[in-house]
Design a protein that fits this description.
Blueprint (H helix, E strand, L loop, with lengths): L2 H9 L1 H22 L4 H28 L8 H18 L8 H28 L1 H4 L5 H8 L1 H21 L9 H28 L14 H7 L4 H29 L4 H50 L2 H42 L4 H30 L10 H27 L4 H17 L5
Length: about 450
């Protein structure tokens, strides 16, 4: 890929990133403070929309693999899909003058559901375009770092610009201040444009190659059944699921751990910087290490460091505040390997599937990955809520009491057990650099022998 293609494709990360951060940060405020919906109802609306979009994702990916246009399979979907996504994003923050709560609820539910579905229709084709653009084993990792500057832009827009929009647009509902209303809607309209513009940039700077496919496409159910032959994908997705489950448990219990720890202020103030600082630096370090030991090797080393640091975290009360910071830095360093390299290992498994099936099913694989990732988050949230009654956590308990033991058990040995279970599947992952290049060679050989299906 040329530098133009790398930056052009990476700009497309804003298609999803900006509206996602805006919705996660400000939509609850809008629904509760402006639309006056009860918190329980808001939570239900978000849950239903999340589940629906997760279930839709594999179908969107399946359809994107079969699309046939002069612009390609994936590019027209995220380009034209960005327009209704931008429209529904804008409408999320528009509150018509409803006379009752029922009408407001129907409006919020309908728009939120459509927004999430359009998000999937844009996100899956965009991500599934990567295997077609970058064939080099290491370049697929390199693209991740090209996306980082755009992620920083996303943070600035969401947390600075939109904060000012909300601050000056608080009188929008009462329509007392026309100027505030204009600023409020104008701000979200301008952010909506920032969904369409990156989509157009990615569309214009990339071009999907034509493929010679020799296999026959099957229906959705038959295609799903045939995926069991892709052992590298199975090992990768199960390994990622287990490791990320451990991370989500640790991350969700951390705020409660800080409440029963003596030096609460120092932990709350500095721990996030220690963790995310080493997480960010670790991403770059692992990339250069991967040139020597490969992507699989980096994940094995990184998860091992991550799992050991979780075990050490169980002895947090003995280690003290600086020992905790040391564990947090190792956690960030270890988990950063999983964040970066599953991103670049997934396209390799798509090529492996193409070698077996004779057709490209990029979209379906990314759709299944999206479904599993969404289920992962929901599963852990409900698991943690269920386990709290066994921990018997209460903010009034003294430090290092029984709740502390239960929290440390979940954040330490339980999370470590999941991490090491995931490590087993990463160890079984077989697509090293040499085997990946053999896969590409076999695909090239079979495509030249087979029939041409554009």
């Amino acid at each position: 890929m040329s530098q133009k293609e790398r930056f052009g494709y990476s700009a497309g990360v804003l298609i999803r990133a900006i509206p996602s951060v805006a919705v996660n940060s400000y939509l609850i405020y809008h629904m509760s403070e402006i639309m006056k919906l009860p918190p329980g109802l808001i939570g239900t609306l978000f849950l239903v929309a999340k589940i629906t979009s997760a279930v839709v994702a594999p179908f969107v990916g399946f359809y994107s693999d079969r699309l046939d246009t002069r612009w390609g399979r994936k590019r027209p979907l995220f380009l034209f899909g960005s327009v209704p996504l931008a429209v529904t994003f804008f409408l999320l923050f528009v509150h018509p003058d409803f006379s009752g709560r029922t009408a407001a609820t129907v409006w919020a539910a309908s728009i939120l559901l459509m927004f999430n579905i359009f998000m999937v229709c844009v996100e899956i084709p965009y991500k599934a375009l990567l295997p077609s653009l970058a064939k080099d084993y290491h370049e697929r990792t390199l693209i991740f770092f090209y996306q980082i500057p755009f992620s920083l832009v996303e943070v600035l827009i969401a947390f600075v610009y939109l904060h000012l929009v909300l601050k000056h647009g608080s009188d929008f509902v009462s329509k007392v201040d026309l100027k505030s209303s204009i600023i409020y809607l104008g701000g979200f309209f301008s952010v909506a444009l920032l969904i369409v513009i990156p989509a157009y940039i990615s569309f214009r700077t990339t071009k999907e190659p034509l493929y010679r496919e020799w296999g026959e496409r099957e229906n959705f159910i038959s295609t799903l059944k045939s995926l069991k032959e892709n052992k590298p994908f199975f090992n990768l997705i199960v390994g990622f699921f287990l490791v990320s489950c451990g991370y989500l448990i640790f991350n969700n219990y951390l705020p409660f751990f800080s409440r029963v720890f003596d030096d609460v202020e120092a932990l709350n103030k500095y721990a996030p910087f220690v963790f995310f600082g080493t997480l960010f630096l670790g991403m770059f370090a692992w990339y250069f290490i991967s040139k020597k030991i490969g992507k699989r090797g980096v994940c094995i080393v990184g998860i091992s460091i991550y799992g050991i640091s979780l075990v050490l975290f169980y002895f947090a009360d003995i280690l003290g505040i600086y020992g905790i910071f040391g564990c947090m830095s190792l956690l960030g360093l270890g988990y950063s390997s999983v964040m970066v390299f599953t991103f670049s290992m997934l396209p390799d498994t798509v090529e492996y599937d193409c070698m077996i099936s004779g057709v490209r099913r990029d979209g379906l694989y990314y759709g299944i990955w999206s479904l599993v990732a969404a289920f992962n988050v929901l599963f852990i949230k409900y698991l943690i809520a269920f386990l709290f009654k066994f921990i018997e956590y209460s903010p009034g308990f003294p430090s290092y009491g029984e709740p502390m033991k239960g929290i440390k058990l979940m954040m330490g040995p339980i999370s470590a057990l999941l991490a090491f279970a995931g490590l087993y599947f990463f160890y079984r992952y077989s697509l090293t650099k040499e085997k990946y290049e053999e896969v590409l060679a076999k695909i090239e050989s079979r495509s030249l022998e087979g029939s041409s299906n554009t």
